[in-house]
Amino acid sequence: MKRLVLVGVWLVFSLFLMGSLPTEAARIKTFVSIVPQKYFVERIGGDLVEVFVLVPPAADPHTYEPKPGQMAELARAAVYFAVGVDFEKAWLRRISAVNPAMRIVRTDEGIEKIPLVAHHHHEEKGQANQRDPKAQGRGQLKEPSAGHSGAPDPHVWLSPPLVRIQAKHIAEALAEIDSVNRAHYEENLAAFLRELDALDMELKSLFARNRGARFMVFHPSWGYFAKAYGLEQVPIEMEGKDPKPAQIKELIHHAREQSIRVVFVQPQFSRKSAEMVAREIGGEVVAVDPLHADWAQNLREVARRFKAAFP
Questions:
Q1: φ, ψ for residue 183, nearest 5 deg
Q2: Average pLDDT, stretch 48-66?
Q3: Are 143 and 113 in contact (CB under 8 A)?
Q4: What confidence category does residue 30 fall into, taking pLDDT thresholds of 50, 70 and 90?
Q5: Would 292 disulfide with which of 38, 59, 147, 298, CB 3.0-4.6 Å?
Q6: What Å distances lie between residue 170 and 88, 106, 164, 194, 205, CA to CA?
Q7: Contact call for residues 74 and 33 (beta carbons, < 8 A)
Q8: Dihedral sign computed on CA atoms, order 40, 42, 43, 49
Q9: CATH C-level class of 27-106+155-200
Q10: Alpha helices in the chain (DSSP H)
């Protein structure tokens, strides 16, 4: 008899535990545009969310087109967290049409965007640097006039202070969708914000003696990161296109003047132009990925690589 009672108690306790855990059906089905956002949503939602990424790690978020299977999954999603990448401009309306009940949250709302920057070419001799009138002949930076069309820089997920804003939008949306667990999302948000602040202070300390230092990249993904820590990126890509031979020649000249010996590339783009510049300056090509899944650790690693590249 005692054995039967113990078995009964064990069954009741097991059922209680199962009921206290979020089931697959109970989890909020969410979509994000890029891999780093998955990190943010999972830090806040924990076991209460199921996160799908629309743009695969190796794909270019500027030009990606969702697959039919992804559109089918989107039809069953509760929320889509947008971040402002280029493909969203063409696809968010279509995505919304597939699932009108799905909530679309623009996590970049409230962020002051900076323009994408291209390296300036000396079309007019003696033209002044738009940022520094005394910097003639040093290699200049300007807003692009074509290709990116002076568009705002979408890479807002690469700056810890800006991720704070995105995290708050994510937490508020989840709390509104699942108000019963609002306290869970708010607690996780508070913990994540503390982590972001600690990372921000760590990176500020790392670059404290490198104010104004320049690093060369193929694609201008690191503008917000550079702005947050007093650095400056020098992109090889010209207005969304590979540079012409004359432009490469100028970039090489600029790199030599600035003692740049490392050219940073990312997996989503060709390395050809970067390798050409690196070869001419006697430098090397180093990969950094702005779309890495382990967002915080990746940002630390990228920061160390930038730091090591400064003369």
A1: -60, -35
A2: 91
A3: no
A4: very high
A5: 298
A6: 17, 9, 10, 16, 28
A7: no
A8: positive
A9: alpha beta
A10: 2-20, 35-45, 68-74, 86-98, 160-177, 182-206, 223-228, 245-257, 272-281, 295-309
Question: Tokens 């400064």 appear where?
Answer: 310
Measured from the Cβ of residue 308, the count of other Cβ atoms closer than 10 Å reads: 9
The CATH architecture that domain 118-122+139-151+207-309 belongs to is 3-Layer(aba) Sandwich (3.40)
Contact 80, 103 (CB under 8 A): yes
d(CA 33, CA 84): 9
For the chain, the structural domain boundaries read: 27-106+155-200, 118-122+139-151+207-309
Q: What is the pLDDT of residues 108-134, one digit of tens each?
A: 999 999 998 765 544 333 333 333 433
- Say how many residues make up the chain: 311
For residue 110, the Cα-to-chain-centroid distance in whole angstroms is: 16
